Amino acid sequence: MTLTNTLQAPRAVVMVRPHAFHPNAETAKDNSYQTVVTAAPDTVAAHALAEHDTAVCTLRKVGIDVHVFDDDGSHDTPDSVFPNNWFSTHPGGVVGVYPMYPVSRRRERRTDVLAFLKRDYRVETVYDYSGLEQDNLFLEGTGAMVLDHIGRIAMVARSNRADPIVLERFCTHFGYEPVVFDAFDPSGVPVYHTNVLMCIGTDFALIGLDLIPDEARRATVHRRLAETGRDVIALSAEQIANFAGNAIELTGTTGRYLALSARAANALTPEQTERITASATLLPLSLPTIECAGGSARCMIAGVHLTKRPKVSQ
Question: For residues 206 and 117, what is the distance between their CA atoms, to the nearest angstrom?
Answer without folding.
Answer: 29
